[in-house]
Amino acid sequence: MLLTRRSFLGGMTLTLAGTGLPAATRELILAPQAIKARFAGHDVSMLGFNGGLPGPEIRVRQGQTARITLDNRLEEGALVHWHGLRVPNRMDGVNVLTQDAVIPGASFRYQFGAPDAGTFWYHSHYLSYDQVSRGLFGAFVVEEQAEPAVDHDIVVQFFDLLLDGSGQYDEAFNPAHFATEGRIGNIVTTLVSNGTGKIVKRGDRLRLRLINPSIDRVYRVGLNGLAGKIVALDGMPLVHPQTLEPILLAPGQRCDVIGDATGPIRFDDDFGEQTLRLGEIAVSGYRDPAKAPISALPPNRMPAPKVSGPTTELVLQGGAGSASHSGTGTWALNGVSGLPRTPFLSVKQGTTARISIRNETGFPHVMHLHGHHFWELDAAGRTGAYRDSTYLDIGETRDILVVLDNPGSWMLHCHMLSHQADGMATWIRVG
Ligand code: C2O
Ligand code: CU
Questions:
Q1: What are the φ and ψ backbone dihedral angles of 348, each rounded to 5 degrees?
Q2: Among 31, 98, 127, 428, which is disulfide-ready with 94 (CB 3.0 to 4.6 Å)?
Q3: Tens-digit pLDDT profile for residues 321-339
């Protein structure tokens, strides 16, 4: 069963339109609450921020301060994490490590700057496998001071959902899902938000901001009808934009593409056994395509890595059929399941660490570090993309290099949120 839904959330998009220079502070309220959303012909009981799924598209200008009040209208705790944004630790929204859950009826004010331009997102970080799968997520866009010239800036989120036989959110939470590839939905919905609401014409230049807020599903997204380049991964500009090929998008990851429409823009996923049509952006009419070449986005300020000490190993273990390890969950990192008392790594602020991540399990994973981006290293030790989440196939090892310059306690976990819930989480202390 496959449902594709296009939702034009123009009215909900919070832009700075109107008055010339943006205010120094962007204020808004995020209120998570129970909602009904329409999927596959059913009114499904879900959760949403400010009444919608996805939550409002938050847009700030690079350098602006965001002041966001979480107003908890759920009947359980709530927290918001700003995925990929380099925020102060106490604003990171992580239960236990950085703050207590906000109780029902209470509120909490998050305030942070936006040092990096790019495509980020926000989501619940309280019982996140549950709350995110019910809809508590949204896009967080930080616009460049000098934005690239495009006709449309469109956020596209691929979200999957597991419905039961009666067309409602499946409450069963099969334990076998946690121990294997996670909770994979039987519906995939493509949430398209076109802030300007303008009709896309053939020949128009588009910037697409692809986000994977699904809790466990990996996509490999092929784009048809667009001639362009990949310009950013996980919010961070690529020094050299890459040829547009099918894009691996694991949970939590983002990808920015800039290109010219050559026809209807179709998103297909060929990660699984069969190709799935994820969604489409219709085009109508024609204009002469923009002639300017697609160039790299302006870089964000990146820390300079200094030669590091010894490489630290992080071994991913556990899952169905694996040997035992300590702790309570199914998955483990370096022999421990669940958030350990002591951090995986404790370093002085400014330390460059090289971490070698080895996937010894029978399943793929995507490891996400809070508060920082890191370089993926290739086998020869050369730095590749600067990301906040790295995908590891079965048996794969990848080294990352990270300048730990943001003080505090930062989670490092698998962003397949069923795996995180079932033990695949640790943390780093930067003092
Ligand atoms: Cu996107 Cu720890 O999260
Ligand atoms: Cu995992």
A1: -70, 145
A2: 98
A3: 776 677 778 999 999 999 9
Would you give the DSSP letter of residue 288? Answer: P
- Is 133 in contact with 162 (CB distance < 8 Å)? yes
The answer to whether residues 231 and 262 touch, using CB atoms and an 8 Å cutoff, is: no
Atom of ligand 1 nearest to the CA of 84: 1
Phi, psi of 300 (to 5 degrees): -85, 160
Q: Is residue 411 within 6 Å of ligand 1 at its C-beta?
A: yes
For residue 193, CA distances in Å to 83, 204, 225, 314 come to 19, 17, 18, 38
Going by CA atoms, what residue is nearest to atom 3 of ligand 1?
83
Q: CA–CA separation, 206 vs 155, rounded Å? A: 11
* pTM of structure: 0.94
Pocket lining: 413 vs ligand 1, CB cutoff 6 Å: yes
26 lines ligand 1 (CB under 6 A): no
Closest ligand 1 atom, CA of 252? 1
pLDDT per position as a tens digit, 260-297: 999 999 999 999 889 999 999 999 999 987 779 999 99
